[in-house]
């Protein structure tokens, strides 16, 4: 059951990334909707009462508006105003409740907006990066004749690097792991972290040569290491929240895998970092 679920998840992810556009956007809306429900469920286990419906709607608005901005339908200034306006809306909703909200209620709601609304929306920005940045075929991260598909390649490669990192950290950690990495997740080891980083770097370097990037080894090391570390951060953040809520899994949506948040936690922090690293590299190239 676990293997079957894993294969279906991988196939679903591949199809929506290849299709892009509204298919990819709606897929992110659905995944983050379920994940946010799971996150708020964990928060409620600790006595917090977040603005669930308002935050869910706000995350929907952020995700859809991100896609509309990438296709030029929404002005950038209007797009930039959406996150703060949604934050104000959430706080206002909490203020209007019969029972006054607490600092924890506000913090959990705003963090949910950022964690499962704003950050995942960068997958849409990354997938459509060639529409928002000029001359991506030039510079240190060159795709040459593939410049019109840069977003597709970066999205697929980033996802593959996360998978490679997970596989490497699991097998190396299981075989050679001795030194615990963090008390938050005792099963994770320093040796597993190193194994995950190495696997991610190897895969990134392979694609660097395959796609004729300038300095494929240097970019492969930077790209692979960043993705692996961001995947780890996402994993540990969710582990910390589950530990606080005293639960093993965020949900039961996926047989053998737990909840949606358990599956996408490694993918939450990655796209924003990669997106801005590309901007920085292009600026200095």
UniProtKB/TrEMBL annotation:
<keyword id="KW-0472">Membrane</keyword>
<feature type="transmembrane region" description="Helical">
    <location>
        <begin position="267"/>
        <end position="284"/>
    </location>
</feature>
<dbReference type="Pfam" id="PF01148">
    <property type="entry name" value="CTP_transf_1"/>
</dbReference>
<feature type="transmembrane region" description="Helical">
    <location>
        <begin position="6"/>
        <end position="34"/>
    </location>
</feature>
<feature type="transmembrane region" description="Helical">
    <location>
        <begin position="193"/>
        <end position="211"/>
    </location>
</feature>
<keyword id="KW-1133">Transmembrane helix</keyword>
<dbReference type="GO" id="GO:0004605">
    <property type="term" value="F:phosphatidate cytidylyltransferase activity"/>
</dbReference>
<comment type="pathway">
    <text>Lipid metabolism.</text>
</comment>
<keyword id="KW-0444">Lipid biosynthesis</keyword>
<comment type="similarity">
    <text>Belongs to the CDS family.</text>
</comment>
<keyword id="KW-0443">Lipid metabolism</keyword>
<feature type="transmembrane region" description="Helical">
    <location>
        <begin position="55"/>
        <end position="72"/>
    </location>
</feature>
<protein>
    <recommendedName>
        <fullName>Phosphatidate cytidylyltransferase</fullName>
        <ecNumber>2.7.7.41</ecNumber>
    </recommendedName>
</protein>
<keyword id="KW-0594">Phospholipid biosynthesis</keyword>
<feature type="transmembrane region" description="Helical">
    <location>
        <begin position="78"/>
        <end position="96"/>
    </location>
</feature>
<dbReference type="GO" id="GO:0016020">
    <property type="term" value="C:membrane"/>
</dbReference>
<dbReference type="InterPro" id="IPR000374">
    <property type="entry name" value="PC_trans"/>
</dbReference>
<keyword id="KW-0808">Transferase</keyword>
<feature type="transmembrane region" description="Helical">
    <location>
        <begin position="217"/>
        <end position="237"/>
    </location>
</feature>
<keyword id="KW-0548">Nucleotidyltransferase</keyword>
<feature type="transmembrane region" description="Helical">
    <location>
        <begin position="103"/>
        <end position="124"/>
    </location>
</feature>
<dbReference type="GO" id="GO:0016024">
    <property type="term" value="P:CDP-diacylglycerol biosynthetic process"/>
</dbReference>
<keyword id="KW-0812">Transmembrane</keyword>
<keyword id="KW-1208">Phospholipid metabolism</keyword>
<comment type="pathway">
    <text>Phospholipid metabolism; CDP-diacylglycerol biosynthesis; CDP-diacylglycerol from sn-glycerol 3-phosphate: step 3/3.</text>
</comment>
<feature type="transmembrane region" description="Helical">
    <location>
        <begin position="151"/>
        <end position="172"/>
    </location>
</feature>
């Amino acid at each position: 059951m676990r293997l079957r679920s894993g294969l279906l998840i991988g196939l679903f992810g591949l199809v929506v990334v290849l299709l892009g556009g509204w298919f990819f956007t709606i897929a992110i809306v659905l995944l983050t909707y379920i994940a946010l429900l799971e996150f708020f469920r964990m928060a409620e286990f600790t006595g917090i009462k977040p603005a669930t419906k308002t935050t869910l709607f706000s995350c929907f608005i952020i995700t859809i508006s991100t896609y509309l901005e990438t296709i030029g339908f929404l002005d950038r200034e209007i797009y930039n105003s959406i996150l703060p306006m949604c934050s104000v809306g959430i706080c206002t909703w909490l203020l209007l409740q019969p029972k006054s909200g607490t600092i924890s209620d506000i913090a959990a709601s705003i963090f949910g907006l950022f964690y499962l609304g704003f950050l995942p929306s960068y997958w849409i920005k990354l997938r459509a990066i060639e529409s928002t940045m000029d001359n991506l075929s030039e510079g240190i991260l060159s795709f040459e004749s593939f410049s019109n598909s840069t977003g597709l390649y970066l999205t697929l490669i980033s996802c593959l690097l996360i998978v490679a990192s997970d596989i490497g950290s699991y097998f190396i950690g299981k075989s050679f792991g001795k030194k615990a990495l963090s008390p938050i997740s005792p099963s994770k080891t320093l040796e597993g972290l190193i194994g995950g980083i190495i696997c991610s770097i190897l895969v990134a370097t392979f694609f660097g040569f395959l796609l004729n990037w300038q300095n494929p080894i240097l970019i492969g090391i930077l790209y692979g290491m960043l993705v692996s570390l961001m995947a780890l951060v996402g994993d540990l953040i969710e582990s910390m929240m589950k530990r606080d809520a005293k639960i093993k899994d965020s949900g039961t949506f996926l047989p053998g895998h737990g909840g949606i948040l358990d599956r996408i936690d490694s993918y939450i922090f990655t796209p924003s970092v990669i997106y801005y690293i590309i901007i920085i590299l292009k600026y200095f190239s």
